[in-house]
Amino acid sequence: PSSFPYNQKGSRYELQLLPRKPPRTMSPPPSSNTSHQILETLTPWSKTRSLSPNQMLFRESDSQSSLFIVQSGLIELAMHVPGRSMVPILSVASGELIAWSALLTKQPMTCSAKAIEETQLLEIPVEAIEQLALKNPAFGQDFYRWIALGFSHRLMATRLQLLDLFQHPNA
After folding, report:
1. pLDDT of residue 170
2. Are 96 and 30 spatial neighbours (Cβ–Cβ below 8 Å)?
3. Count of other CB atoms within 10 angstroms of residue 99
4. 119 pairs with which residues across the strands?
5. Sign of the C-alpha dihedral, residues 55, 100, 77, 33?
6. Which of 60-64, 114-118, 160-164 is predicted most confidently?
7. Mean pLDDT to the nearest integer, 114-129
8. DSSP per residue, the chain
9. pLDDT of 2-54, one tens digit each?
10. Which has the closest alpha carbon to 126: 46, 65, 85?
11. Contact present, 129 and 104 (Cβ < 8 Å)
12. Virtual torsion, Cα 114, 100, 31, 119, nearest 10 deg
């Protein structure tokens, strides 16, 4: 993990079985100007949304027709676990995407999302993204590559958490 270039301030990502605040994921670094160009293209179809601490963005099994980008603040993602109620699984920080299911699968949300602190989000209707991608294939390619980069970083954060969880106690 120490050779991974995106760990935060040299720290390791530790998984706590019952975290008070779930571990943060790594925000993907801006890749040249691509993320800025994507946001500029989407701005006319998007709107800003503000959440207060503990305010829900959506609940597990809700239908969602928008993708969200955290502009500032912190969102907790949690899942219902039978016998344990809601279990926090991840914190999503500035620059990260929420509600990929709305865009990629059109399935209900697989977790709930609520603000941990004052949070500003950019809300982008999935229909607008799909129409832009159809009309401008270069935008579509850049946008879905950007989404894939987000997946990659979340998977790496999960891998680092698992490495910490299963690390030998004497290591």
Report:
1. 62
2. no
3. 24
4. 51
5. negative
6. 114-118
7. 95
8. -TT-TTSGGG------SS-SSPPBPPPPPP-TTHHHHHHHHHGGG-EEEEE-TT-EEE-TT----EEEEEEES-EEEEEEETTTEEEEEEEE-TT-EE-HHHHHT-PPPSSEEEESS-EEEEEEEHHHHHHHHHH-HHHHHHHHHHHHHHHHHHHHHHHHHHHHHTS-TT-
9. 333 333 333 333 333 333 344 444 444 444 466 788 888 888 899 999 999 99
10. 65
11. no
12. -20
Query: Tokens in use for 90?
Result: 């991840």
19 token code pair: 């975290």
The number of residues making up the chain comes to 171
The residue type found at 108 is: P
The amino acid present at 85, given as its one-letter code, is: S
Convert the pLDDT of each residue in 55-113 to its tens digit: 999 999 999 999 999 999 999 989 888 888 888 888 888 888 899 888 888 889 999 99
